[in-house]
Amino acid sequence: MTNIFESILNYLIVITSEIGYIGVITIVGLEYACFPLPSEIVLPFVGFLAASGAVSYIGVLIASTIAGILGSLVCYYIGYFGGKPILDRIGDKVPSSRKSIFAAKNTFDKYDKISVMIARVLPLARTYISIPAGIARMNVFKFILFSSIGIIIWNTVLISLGYYLGSNWMMVEQLMKKYTLFIGILVLVLTVIYLIKKRK
Question: In this predicted structure, what is the pLDDT of residue 162?
C-alpha cells in the first residue's frame, strides 16, 4: 500500500511541475482532503517550483491556501454527513492514519473550535481535524476562518523552506521529523501538566 501511495505522489509531483497552478491546487487539495500525501514533501516541492521560476512565490501561497480550504471542506462535509463511522472506516482502510485520526479527535474534543486552527500546525492532526469538526456540526464559516489562519501559517513555512532550499527541498522532510518529535514531546508535557493541575 505504501509503494502505491509513493508512486501516486511521484506521479502527482511530475504532473504538478508541468501544469503549474492547477497542479499545485490539485496536489495540495488532495493532501488537505485526507489523501495520504505528506505535506512535508508536497509543500516544499511547491516552494521549489516557485524558486525555479515555473510559478511565482506569492501565486503558490495563494493557490495552496485555496487548495487547503477546498480540501478541508471535503473532509468537513464527509464528517458532517457521514459521522463517526467515517472515522472508523478510514482507520480500518488506511491503518497508518489511525494515529492521526486519534490525535485530531482528541485535539478537537479538548479545544473545540480553536482546535481547527491549532491542529493545522500539528503534523499528526492537521488534515484529519476537519472530520471531527464536521461531525460536531461546527459552523462552516467559522471552520473556514479558523482553518484559513492555520493553513496560511503551515503552507507559508513549508513552501518558504522549499523555496529557499531550492533543489535541496527534500531536506525539509528530515527537518519536519524533528519538528514532529518536538511537538509530540511538547504536547505530552502540556497534557501531563494539565492533568496534574486538574487533579489538584
Answer: 83
